[in-house]
Amino acid sequence: MSARGQFSSRIGFVIAAAGSAVGLGNIWGFPTQVASNGGAAFVLVYLVLTFLLAYPILMAELIIGRHAQSNMVDALQKISIDPIPKLIGRLTGYWGLVVVSLILSFYAIVAGWMLAYGLQSVTNMLGMTAASTWLTTASILRDIIFCVIFFVMTILIVSKGVSNGIEKWSTRLMPMLIVLILALIIYVSTLDGAGQGWEVYLVPDFSKITDPNLLISALGQAFFSLSLGVGTMLIYGSYVSKKENIVVLGASVALVDIGIAIMAGMLIIPAMYVALNNGVTIFNEAGDLIAGPQLIFTVIPSLFESMGTIGPFIALVFFLLMAIAAVTSSISMLEVPVAYAVENSEVSRSKASWLIGVGILLISTVIIFNQALLFDLVVAITTQYSQPLIGLMLSIFAGWVWHRHTILEELKDGCPEMESSVFWKIWPSYVRYVCPIILIVMFYTTTFG
Ligand code: PHE
């Protein structure tokens, strides 16, 4: 076992963890949910759910990780005393490991599409029509090529380690992401039709938020967006120095994540109405705003096309933004199995990154060949079912299995006055009772409701 990596600074951790959190979930998932679910009213629900439910679980992961100084499989076992919780802890850890690998396997396919569309804006500028058509026409070859490219980038970063790879690249890429998104928001706001989009976004329609399905999808979105329930935040927490106040760090990560999701809404929703203004169809037959892949790969590209000569440049910036968001998340996914392998065998980080990365790439390939059958299935099994269920397990471990006293000791590192803090007054009983109950109700409703 080699020496454990560590983030070199507080800000390095916040940026890397925010990089993990901010991904396709924020820039793609969040805005579409907002648009079809009552605009600002949904944002409000999302904010409340994130702070009431997702943040406490995020803290559970970070605290367990920093205390155990290990990956989720070993960590949940370490904080348990009796043999049965130890065994359940291990199994939960393995489950997280499998789930995160599966998430990466479909995430990389989608990220590959972003690369293909980004490249297409370049071939468009050069007038290479045939290449452009190939890049934007679904084919197994295209999907595999760009998925491989995306995996190579992810593997190269992870193989360099925590501070030299993950932290370094996150701190390079995240500021770029913020600049790009701001530039796009400003540009899109100046176009005709944007005003209507802003209105849809900012005027709350509370009639939509009474729907229980909405609460569930908002919660699912919050879990996915904060990278919870798969051991990602746990392993990042294990690389945080004992000198840091982890409660504040966790809150900063959640704030950045929400902030960027809200900004993405300011981009995508006005952009859709600009597209409408330019004659692009943005509603489906049922009269709802088009969401999912069709939004990103049909509506948004048609918008760029309708912009004239500046279109390909804006498209390039947009897909670059997407690719950056994706890579800072995918590295955090690959880190989970890699850390496990490095901590439990003699294998070097570099070798583990390549072996595991290529292994997950093979799963992606299977999905690419059987897209109609597997894609939605894998997404549902991992994000809809497993993430909340593992979240539930984590809240049980933090609330029932782990000793309260040890948790306090852990939190006091980096914040000696923790015992009298608001966090300590609320969080322990919160993860013990409130989180499990809500998660069980939510899971029950999604599955059987
Ligand atoms: N949070 C990422 C996003 O919003 C996805 C993710 C899920 C990352 C699970 C790591 C682990 O896109």
List the defining traits of the structure above:
binds phenylalanine, Amino acid/polyamine transporter I
General form? globular
Number of helices: 18
Number of strands: 0
Instruction: Indicate the multimeric state.
Output: single chain
- Give the bound compounds: phenylalanine
String of helices and strands: HHHHHHHHHHHHHHHHHH
Characterization of the model:
- By secondary structure, the protein is mainly α.
- It has a single domain, classed as Amino acid/polyamine transporter I, CATH 1.20.1740.
- The protein starts with 9 loop residues before the first helix and ends with a helix.
- Phenylalanine binds next to helix 1, helix 2, helix 5, helix 10 and helix 14.
Summarize the structure.
The chain has 449 residues and is an all-alpha fold. The protein has 18 helices and no strands.
Secondary structure elements and their pairing?
Blueprint: H1 10-21, H2 24-36, H3 40-68, H4 72-78, H5 83-125, H6 129-136, H7 140-159, H8 162-189, H9 194-202, H10 212-225, H11 232-238, H12 246-277, H13 292-305, H14 311-344, H15 349-369, H16 371-401, H17 404-412, H18 422-448
Helix pairs in contact: 1-8, 1-12, 1-14, 2-10, 2-12, 3-4, 3-10, 3-11, 3-12, 3-16, 3-18, 4-5, 5-6, 5-7, 5-14, 5-15, 5-16, 7-8, 7-14, 7-15, 8-12, 8-14, 9-12, 11-14, 12-13, 13-14, 14-15, 15-16, 16-18
The structure holds phenylalanine.
Phenylalanine (PHE) is lined by residues 20-21, 23-26, 100, 103, 224-225, 227, 230, 232, 329, 332-333.
